[in-house]
Design goal:
The protein has 4 helices and 6 strands. It is an alpha+beta fold. Bound molecules: tetrahydrodeoxyuridine (THU).
Length: 141
């Protein structure tokens, strides 16, 4: 969660004013992080979780994903985050996380925190995305 909070400072979020950081814990203890990356063409925005998981993929480590931490909040005038409650992965991110869950054979743990850490939740991806579409849905597993 500390890594997620740290990387949220690098969010490129001038349009929404909402910064998100995500950190992925790998099986060997390595942590890979990412933050949201918005675009002037709003719909092209990349979420923090997806950015982090794409970096894990680039390392060839998707099978080693174990836990994910997500944190964020509104960007205040002083640049500090304003707490608006725990940030839970959006629907698209849940599906992207599910891909790592399928590859790792792990019901991944997802920690969701508010900006100031006063509220934290821990979920499993099967609870966040029940009846998921995955390789088995394609007849591949
Ligand atoms: N955002 C994320 O990075 N992850 C989520 O799971 C939810 C939303 C970002 C996208 C956009 O830059 C901003 O938060 C507001 O939606």
């Amino acid at each position: 969660m500390a890594a997620a909070r740290a990387v949220s400072r690098n969010a490129h979020a001038p349009y929404s004013g909402f910064a998100v950081g995500a950190a992925i814990l790998l099986s060997d203890g390595q942590i890979i992080s990412g933050c949201n990356f918005e675009n002037a063409s709003y719909g092209l925005t990349l979420c923090a979780e997806t950015v982090a998981l794409a970096s894990v993929n680039a390392l060839g480590r998707l099978r080693d994903v174990r836990e994910i931490a997500v944190v964020g909040g509104r960007i205040g005038a002083d640049g500090a985050l304003i707490d608006v409650g725990p940030v839970r992965p959006c629907g698209r991110c849940r599906q992207v996380i599910q891909e790592a869950a399928d590859l790792s054979g792990t019901n991944l743990t997802v920690h969701c925190s508010s900006a100031d850490g006063s509220v934290q939740e821990t979920h499993r991806i099967s609870d966040l995305l029940p009846h998921a579409f995955g390789p088995a849905s394609l007849g591949l597993a």
